[in-house]
């Protein structure tokens, strides 16, 4: 049986904390004083009441690996008045701990942003099979991988995808990119802000989650014909509209959740027993 510390070590070898944003909070975040005595791992994007109820109902789950950190800012007190803290205390009573990956999973080669690039390039079968897809991508901001093994070469924040067909650069209509994203992410709707004169795109800047700060720091709007992310603020959308750079928004966790099945395979190959949460869902829906 794998202990929480062993699970955490495996997760952190696959998703090194050193690749996470300096502002992020990843790794072993919640370690109860006792163990539930089982070692199945539940994968989720967000630790919500529905997910914790799922853990309570399934006595084979001993650990949670969450994408988003349930503990993010510094705490001055810990009590039941805070909904997130209350969930963690429920897990503690069961003996279930929490490990978080967040931007470490975004940054690694074959991580969340590479998955999104493969969705846009319509190369998801190669990504699923772990085969070379020969995508022309580079990081919007490169990470320092000098202390990691060579498998993490090319890691970093975001991706800049140059669309290609048969080895040559090509362009795609915005409508086709929207279609590919909706199909690949299982969505019926996207949000788009576009310059009507933009007929098609050759380069796409990609950032899972909320891409505003990365797009600014990397000046992605000067490098890409299109920006794709989960969410942007109202004023960020206006800024890119004025720059005549179209934006496609999928919804924050919609840009991340589809990666969980691929993460499951990675963890299983490393010796863990894993299931993807059925209760984990985006908090917003189209009505």
From TrEMBL:
Query: Where is a divalent metal cation bound in this sequence?
Result: 68, 106, 252, 256
Q: Which InterPro entries would you find in this protein's record?
A: DUF34/NIF3, DUF34/NIF3_sf
Q: Please give the superkingdom of this protein's source.
A: Eukaryota
One GO location term (cellular component): mitochondrion
GO molecular function annotations of the record: hydrolase activity; metal ion binding
> Which keywords does this chain's UniProt record carry?
Hydrolase, Metal-binding
Annotated family? Belongs to the GTP cyclohydrolase I type 2/NIF3 family.
PANTHER family linked to this entry = NGG1 INTERACTING FACTOR 3, NIF3-LIKE PROTEIN 1
| Stated name of the protein | GTP cyclohydrolase 1 type 2/Nif3
Question: Organism, per UniProt?
Answer: Protomyces lactucae-debilis
Its taxonomic path starts at: Eukaryota, Fungi, Dikarya, Ascomycota, Taphrinomycotina
